[in-house]
Structure of DUF4378 domain-containing protein:
Amino acid sequence: DEPRIESPRKIIIEEQVKLLVPHTREQVIELCHEALKILFDQNKDFSNRSAIKCQIPNSYFKYDAQDSDNENIRRNHHAYCQMIFDLCIELLNEMYTENIQLEKYPEWQKTKLISKRFYRGNKTNNRHYIEQFIETKILEILNLNTRQIKYSKWRVSNGTRNGKEKFEIILDEEIRRTESQWIDYDDDCMQLKFDIADSILDQLIQETITECLDIVDRRFFFSSNSTRL
């Protein structure tokens, strides 16, 4: 057997990934502040998404922009600023939107609620509070701000608990999770109304058919008697 010649390993030089859009928390906060200032100057209400005026001046895209000859860097910076601006619009629209589905319902049907977010319908006249809230939310979306996840006491495991207590905790957590489904009677009420309507319609159809057959029998009876005479 010929000796096996191993090929020399390729030397891989790991290059540091360069951010085409370098950003920090301070830069994002300043961009949010500028975007909200533009939006509040152009709009008074943000409940209608299609009616929100969003004319962005060129000064917004040039804010904190680094002079560069690279077209990709300038283009990516423009897209990044546009993304921050769009996020501000979406969050403002969520805060000013009511917690109902904007549809026309019949008078006998109750308006349905949509799944409420903690900031939906949280409209406030305090502009400083709105700016702080949106800045914090965008920092969380961009993973520039650590989000503290708080668990309830029912999800905290304790090694001293026995099997029965753990089972009761799991059962209680499951009941809490599905509570909104079995305490909502809207679907049951709707189904009951349709069942009653179907029952009334079937009864009317049956009575109509019976009445028509009775009329046909009478006509046949009278026609047969007249023929005999």
